Amino acid sequence: MPRFSIIVPSHGVEGRLSLALDSVLAQSFGDFELIPVCDAPDAPGADVAAGYAERDSRVAPVHSPPSAGPSGARNTGMRAATGAYLLFLDGDDVLVPGALGALADRLDATGDVDVLYFEHERTPWWEGEPTRPAEPLLAKAPPEAFAPGRAPEVTGVSLPAWSAAYRRAFLTGHRLAFPDGHFTDVGFGGLVTVAAERMAVLRAVVVRHLLRRQGSRLNQPGAHHVELLDQTELVLTRAAERGLSGARAEALFEQLFAAVLRTAAHPRRLPSRKRAFFRRAARLYRRHRPAGFRRPGGSLGVQHRLLAAGAYTAFRTLRGANRAATGAAGSVPRPRLLRTRLRYWRQLRRPLDPDLAVYCAYWGRGYACSPAAIHAKARELAPHIRSVFLVEADQAHAMPKDVDHAVIGSRRYWEVLARATYLVNNANFAEGVVKRAGSVHVQTQHGTPLKKMGVDQSTYPVVAAATGSFAKLLGRVDRWDYNLSSNRHSTQVWERAFPGSYEALEYGYPRNDVYCTATAEDVARIRRELGVPEGRTAVLYAPTHRDHHTGFEPGLDLEAFCEEVGEDVVVLLRAHYFYDRGRGGGTGRIIDVTAHRSSEDVCLAADALITDYSSIMFDYANLDRPIVVYADDWEVYQETRGVYFDLPAAPPGPVTRTPQELARVFRDGSYAGPGSRALRAAFRERFCQFDDGRAAERVVRRVLLGEPPEAIPPVLPLARRVPAPAAAPLVRS
């Protein structure tokens, strides 16, 4: 039997799960089993947990459906546990170094106890000093093991479940489990305290709790706050059944109603039925108030009196009832011109148009990327939705004739932004755009992240300076309702880089649908439009942007490359979209396609890809065509931009460091040989998970048509997909 079983639910925190698991496996005390609880065998967290289980026999994942909630996940872990003591660790928290050793030493000193409470550290997600909220409470407890009556204030109600170690035999003997619903820690903590006969405390931090940027889910508005009363009633009823009396009953009662009063005092937590909540709380208060209970002093004591009397109006007055809504001034949009600002504000006072959708790509560069793919599919599947594409004035001429558009900054631009129900973007809408209640914002993203993104950029000075205010960035993230992902790697990165309350849609990138739907005729047509000579091998060269460069630097002598690899090769040069106002044209062997509207078309035309660290490699891999990485400055890029994984260690094809190496793999054909294919297959397995040609359809059905998740077409397995054909078999002279 292991000394400890550590149970780690993973729902909603898959992006940080590895930090929690690493913190356990790095402990110097090794007598434990680690039980990650995942939503399902194919869920994002399950992939992470399975990898750990393969490497360490102490890791034993189990599964609990999201519908079972946190209580179901923990109870599932408890049933699987075999350790003498159980610990619960949220998936985005960590054990501090030496934590398990300190717990083992303390239990050796106290002997078997039913519950060992310990301190935890609350760490702000961005800035601020960590706090130790349990320290004052646990400081009052005796230094040795004690009966609950000696320290009645240690009730467990005010401590999270992951701030204690529980003897498994005690829990099973009393049939203790986490109650269903919200505020399950309150219910579990109270039930444990009622049943416990021997306790101890460890006055040291064991768990480091990372505060979520969006705050605790329990503090969000909603009807779930009524369940706090359910948990309160459950605990007080059990206490009455066991005959709990005296100081223990009073401390338990006072701490439970401290939580109830905090909720009652925040009207925004209860968008409806505030009075009903208060009335039920008053009934519970009167029914379970211990004989001789002395109310606390000061304002809190007044609240107790008003609750006991059921005086809702007086209670609300005391707590600042009927306060005017604040923050309205901060939400006023800020278009540059006063007249436009006022016009936009007037439009915001009109109802949303339920059949209006607004799209934008790359800050108004035109009809492109996933917003264009979703727009096209919406016209097919949801023709009742009127769509408007937003575009910069100098790109309006390039918009398709049959696509309604509005010029950014114009009067109509602000009108449609104010009234659209659906807003789709692959970047972000302007700072002044207001997220209206009932509107739905879809963030499509525009690539799989290799380089650091969002708040992960903060430790890279050059990038952070270009990003600007991270507070403003996160304000834009707060507008997102849905965030698209094309692979599990992206899902986990977005969770860390853009912390928010949006829902991740693992549907694939709509712009990549064409890689599974384009025909040989489409490929031939695109090559003719780009000027690729018949019978030539077209190699796409697509380097990424360097934050430490002031302009586009190709990084490779393309003329020399063409001379080295032979006459049958032409190069399609596509610089990063930051430079799409560039030269165009080129020599007969080098065709500049930087300004071409569609990167998807360019990829379809290419027989092979050369890139450095551009996210185009992840998209191009869907075509299952050769990819060569030209990583001449990988170490510099890592240091200045930051990356999420070691690309040279897991590349999509051969990795070259010099122009000579690059030319050689094309001369000898190894760029398309068996080794290249093996690397590409592993890369595709990891990063082409959801791009099966139906991503746009899934988005339209889920977002615009409101179909339930279970009705959305499932992702076709990678082995069953047929990529768009290349122009011709690759043959070397």
Offer a concise description of the structure.
The protein has 733 residues and is α/β, with parallel strands linked by helices. 37% of the residues lie in helices and 14% in strands.
Question: Any key phrases for this structure?
Answer:
733 residues; alpha/beta; eight-stranded mixed beta sheet; seven-stranded parallel beta sheet; 14% strand
Walk me through the topology.
Elements lengths: L3 E6 L7 H9 L6 E7 L5 H12 L6 E2 L5 H12 L4 E4 L5 E2 L3 H12 L4 E9 L11 H4 L25 E4 H6 L10 H12 L3 E12 L15 H16 L4 H19 L9 H15 L9 H12 L2 H7 L19 H11 L4 E8 L8 H13 L4 E6 L13 E3 L3 H9 E6 L14 E4 L17 H7 L2 H8 L4 E3 L3 H10 L5 E3 L8 H4 L2 H11 L6 E6 L15 H8 L3 E5 L16 E3 L6 H7 L2 E4 L4 H5 L6 E4 L3 H8 L13 E2 L2 H9 L6 H14 L7 H10 L29
Parallel strand pairs: 1-2, 1-4, 2-3, 6-8, 9-10, 9-12, 10-11, 12-13, 13-14, 14-15, 16-17, 16-19, 17-18, 19-20, 20-21
Antiparallel strand pairs: 4-7, 5-8, 6-7
Helix pairs in contact: 7-8, 8-9, 8-10, 9-10, 13-15, 14-27, 20-22, 21-25
